[in-house]
Design brief:
The radius of gyration is 28 Å and the shape is elongated. A hairpin with a 2-residue loop joins strand 1 and strand 2. The longest helix has 22 residues. It has two domains: 57 residues, no CATH class; 91 residues, Alpha Horseshoe (Serine Threonine Protein Phosphatase 5, Tetratricopeptide repeat). By secondary structure, the chain is mainly alpha-helical. The chain has nine helices and two strands.
Length: 192
């Protein structure tokens, strides 16, 4: 009687190539990921189940790479593409797309914020502060994000940056006789 051999898993070298592809994919480096996945398909043709997964991820890489080369037409598409470019350290592309959005909508808060981040990364602190000021004027709650955004780390100790982050207090109403004049209160019979 012939003994059944336990199924063997993929070879260590094939797994290493697959893992390198997955790391690149997770970091949104789709071209690098595709190169690893192509190398796996060509170099390890006997790795059936691993190659099936590889093909799925390779298709994803090709889809993402194809999307990137489309010309984003809508304001929202340009802002999404600008954000992706900034996250991938492609400051030139992020700047071009954000500026394009800003040309269409001059007070667009995300475009202003992205341009502030690009300028901060480049060391142009004055331009970064100018764009941040405009972004906060358009959307005051963007301060919360800027407080923790590593793109602005070089500006953290700046008095101007700290002043921009300070949340302006609402105007106070004048007080007369211990009561705010802005609120009308109904006095009870005992208070009259």
């Amino acid at each position: 009687m012939a003994q059944l051999q336990p199924p063997h898993g993929p070879g260590a070298e094939a797994v290493a190539v697959f893992q390198a592809g997955m790391e690149a994919l997770q970091a949104h480096r789709y071209a690098d990921a595709a190169r690893h996945f192509d190398a796996l398909l060509e170099g390890f043709p006997a790795e059936g189940p691993l190659l099936d997964r590889t093909r799925v991820y390779l298709d994803l890489c090709h889809r993402e790479l194809g999307r990137r080369h489309e010309d984003p037409r809508t304001l929202e598409d340009r802002l999404t593409a600008a954000t992706m470019a900034l996250n991938e350290d492609d400051d030139d592309q992020a700047e071009a797309l954000a500026q394009s959005a800003l040309d269409e909508s001059p007070e667009q808060d995300l475009a202003l914020y992205l341009l502030a981040a690009v300028n901060a990364r480049r060391g142009d602190h004055q331009a970064a502060l100018t764009f941040l000021s405009r972004a906060f004027a358009a959307r005051p709650d963007a301060r919360a994000q800027a407080r923790h955004d590593p793109d602005f780390d070089d500006l953290r100790d700046s008095d101007e940056f700290q002043a921009l982050l300070a949340v302006p207090e609402p105007p106070r109403r004048p007080v007369r006789n211990g009561r705010s004049t802005g609120l009308k209160t109904r006095l009870s019979a005992n208070q009259r």
